Amino acid sequence: MKAAVLYGPGDVRVEDKADPKPGRGEVLIRIRSCGVCGTDAALFKGDYPAATPVVIGHEFAGEIAEIGAGVDGFRVGDRVTVDPNVICHECEYCRSGYEHLCERASSMGVHRDGADAEYCAMPVSNVYAIPPSLSFEEASFCEPLACAVHGVDLAGIKLGDTVLIVGAGGMGNLIAQCVRDSGAARVIVSEPIALRRERALENGATDVIDPGVQDPGAELRKIRRIGADVVFEAAGNSGAQASCLSLARKGGTVVWFGVSPQDRLIEVNPFYVNENEIRILGSYNNQFATGRAVKLLAEKRVRVDNLVSHRLPLSDYLKVFSMFGGKDTLKLMVTIES
Ligand SMILES: [Zn+2]
Ligand SMILES: [Zn+2]
Q: What is the count of structural domains for the chain?
């Protein structure tokens, strides 16, 4: 099969590779589309640790091509998406409801072969059927949407809250829709790229701020004098992660959602955090949210039709790294024909 393989920082090759075989309890999936994630860009830059060489990509949908031994409940031809994080089911986290924090987790595109390829083999416990109403492209958003759902679960938004989202890439746009549906009265999005602000306004934002020309703190305080109940940092930007603390109200919550370079440090004033009772949360992967993400997309509670800016065939995969983060770029989608 053809696959995009990460060998190390700056080194991804589209090459031929042996087709995977489904083991016991696994299915072989013919991949039809795979979204490009900030994590993929971080892997390429060397900002995120990986077990190389590894097939990159983890936000995908496809159809079952082969059933491994001992698998019930799925048939060849079923249309599916996948939670790409394979867990051990045995460690103390897995046994206490925190499977996303599994000590032996193996994530597609990072530790095990991913989905910018024609095929992948996955344990059936990670596989979710998708309804005919969802295209493969739409269903490829299930993984990032599951992560957004988890972040919103953690944030504990209340009806009528004022929520600020910093960064309106693919994730910020998904978070905005989840936040709106969780009952927030104001959903304010700060984003320097015009295209992304426009999309955010289509996707649940009540107000947008351009931090290139406006002061996010001053703009926020025109809307809510005391600051936001919840602030999501969805850009993975160190400056924004630090400044988010002063944008939350006293007793407010800051969710660090964006992926940072692994060695990055930022300065935080503990006195300020203590005095203002700021709650700082990390949000990682997703906790039993993939099934809910499928439902949100199937019921059209979350739209993704306006998020894909470019579609590329797998053979052109390397182009994604020069396009990622550009001002005309939102979600990049790799289409896989075989
Ligand atoms: Zn992702
Ligand atoms: Zn585990």
A: 2
